[in-house]
Amino acid sequence: MSVTSVKKSATVKKPPRTKLYLIILIMVFFLIGSIYQTDATLSKLVSGAPEILKFIGEMFPPDWLFFADIWKPMAQTIQMSIIGTAIGALFAYPMALLAARNVTTSPWLYYPARFILNFARTIPDLLYAALFAVLVGFSATAGTLALIFFTFGILSKLSYESTEAIDPGPLEAMTAVGANKLKLIRFGVIPQVAPTYLAHLLYTFEVSIRASAILGLVGAGGIGLLLKNTLDLFRYDQSCAIVIYTLIVVVIIDLVSTRFRAYLLKGSAKPMSESRARTYKTIGWIALIGLIVWSVTGLELTGFQPTTWILTKAMISGLFHPDWAYVYIPEGEDLLRSLLETLSISYLGNFVSAFVCLPFAFWAAANMSRFRAVSGSGKFFLSVVRTIPEIIMALIFIKAVGPNAYAGVMALGLHSVGMLGKLYAEAIENMDMGPSEAMTAVGANIWQRMAYAVIPQVIPDFISYTLYRFEINVRSATLLGVIGAGGIGTPLIFALNARQWPRVGIILIGIIVTVSIIDYISGSLRKRIV
Q1: What sections of the protein cross the membrane (predicted)?
Q2: How far apart are CA 360 and CA 243, in angstroms?
């Protein structure tokens, strides 16, 4: 076999050049517009580098003695995540079955179901927490309620997509012999999707832990509330201790969850006896029930406040009578300008991270190195980067470039390096190594193997993950304004604090419409690519 023949077999079909040039032109146009909108220049970052170093210097060395005060809020964070994930899953799975077209054949059912789950997913977790904090007070209850809705939005989407991807054969066979809908779900759907559903549940729990770590910034309890207090008191050494503590907990949960998800999706690497498998399942169920009992009994959940009903009525009234005048104001800040800035922050941050994360993704991919320690160190680095909340990163860059959209761009870009790097590394690990091994056998060097055997296989997944990350970044960018990092979050938090519900209503409408459009476009593109 020659190198030329291997190159031909490994290359994917290229799009027409005119279409490719048009896509590049559009990307460059959006890139230039985003740079202009956020006023992002390298000179600003370089001139502000001493301030970044000064801020980091104030964080180190961490206050190690403060660890003794962190464990209780961290336990509360884990308990909030467990309860929020468990209750959210109870609502998400039935909604996923309703939204799946191969289970629910009536468009009068699956279209409303998809609308509900898409609506729930468009509202960011921190916004849920801020709304519930107003209704039920600044407590863990607000954070738990926010995580329930957050889990519902993520898990229902992942689950209905997995349900639609199952083998239709058993369903068709059961339908042919007259099985009703309940039997169809019980014996035709659940046996196929149960491992995937559980894997998605573990993944959502990981995400909930990371999300709950910052919900306290709006008074929703957990470790985030302690982090907010240390930031308000300028005790950055204690803030650093909280970040390190959170990193340790998240890495442990990530490792355990990854092992379990790999077992659920791929099975055990070694043959296991039926009795041993049954024992492991029993231990797993006991551990799960124990964690739920620990969370329910250990978390101090408060009831509704005396003013909750009054505030709820005022909020609903304001949300259904939005401030339409705020949509466009010629002489000042308005909804359209804020949303445009939010999209610019998301696009530019995503664009930067998509390129910066590439070397780290290949570093973390196990099949790109002979030594497990090399890929393991890469995975650990990416885990560290994505564990640090965007809010902390935004604070660092605010010190350098000031409280503006540029700080939001850098925070989102750096945080997305950790998230995209992990997804890219998994795509590299899952690719077919046959073409690369064949090219090695005929004497191709590493650059030829990368160009003709690796990149053509992973580029569709890379593009798909980048589009998916852009959806998430649009939601994240709406929150950075809480600390002055630009975007729609700044007027939103002002309106929430001032109880200006008509203003909150129009901003929510703007966020929901924008995120829904982005989700639809991104989803359509990802389906065509993958």
Answers
A1: 20-37, 78-100, 126-155, 207-227, 239-262, 282-301, 347-368, 380-398, 477-498, 504-522
A2: 22
What's 333's DSSP letter?
-
392: exposed, middle or buried (C-beta count within 10 Å: 0-12, 13-18, 19+)?
A: buried
Q: How far apart are CA 76 and CA 68, in angstroms?
A: 14
3-state secondary structure of 330: coil
Nearest to 414 by CA among 381, 461, 436: 381
- Phi and psi for 181 in degrees, rounded to 5? -65, -40
Q: How far is Cα of residue 249 from the mean position of the Cα atoms in its chain? A: 18
Cβ neighbours of residue 42 under 8 Å, at least 6 residues apart? none
Using the Cα atoms of residue 503, residue 504, residue 507 and residue 513 in order, give the sign of their dihedral. negative
Are the beta carbons of 76 and 140 closer than 8 angstroms? yes
Neighbours of 152 (CB within 10 A): 25
The 10 Å CB-count burial string (b at 16+, else e) for 446-461 is eebbbbbbbebbbeeb
Give how far the C-alpha of residue 397 lies from the chain's centroid of Cα atoms, to the nearest Å.
21
Does the N-terminal peptide bond of residue 61 adopt cis geometry, omega within 30 degrees of 0?
yes
Task: Name the nearest CA neighbour of 91 among 190, 139, 159.
Answer: 159
Unique residue bearing structure tokens 């939010």: 342
CB 125 within 8 A of CB 476: no
The answer for residues whose C-beta is within 8 angstroms of residue 321's C-beta and 6 or more apart is 502, 505
> How far is Cα 194 from Cα 129, in angstroms, rounded to an integer?
30
Instruction: Report the candidate in 382, 390, 460, 375 with the shortest Cα–Cα distance to residue 420.
Output: 382
Tracing tokens 């629910």 back to the chain, one arrives at: 104
Q: What are phi and psi of 104, to 5 degrees?
A: -105, 105
> How is residue 99 written in tokens?
């939204």
User: For every one of its 530 residues, what pLDDT tens digit does the chain have, with 9 covering 90 and above?
Assistant: 444 444 444 444 555 678 777 878 888 888 888 888 888 877 877 887 787 788 788 888 888 888 888 888 888 888 988 998 999 989 988 888 888 888 887 888 878 888 888 788 877 777 788 778 777 777 788 888 888 998 898 888 888 878 887 888 888 888 888 878 788 888 888 888 877 788 778 878 877 887 777 777 777 777 878 887 888 888 888 888 988 888 888 878 877 777 776 666 565 556 666 777 678 778 878 888 888 888 888 887 776 667 777 777 877 887 788 889 888 888 878 889 889 988 999 899 899 899 999 999 989 888 887 788 888 888 888 888 877 777 778 878 887 788 888 888 888 888 889 888 888 888 888 888 888 888 888 888 878 888 888 888 888 888 888 888 888 888 778 777 777 778 888 888 888 778 888 888 898 888 888 888 887 787 777 767 65
Radius of gyration over alpha carbons of the chain, in Å?
A: 24
3-state secondary structure labels for all residues of 98-161:
HHCCCCCCCHHHHHHHHHHHHHHHHCCHHHHHHHHHHHHCCCHHHHHHHHHHHHHHHHHHHHHH
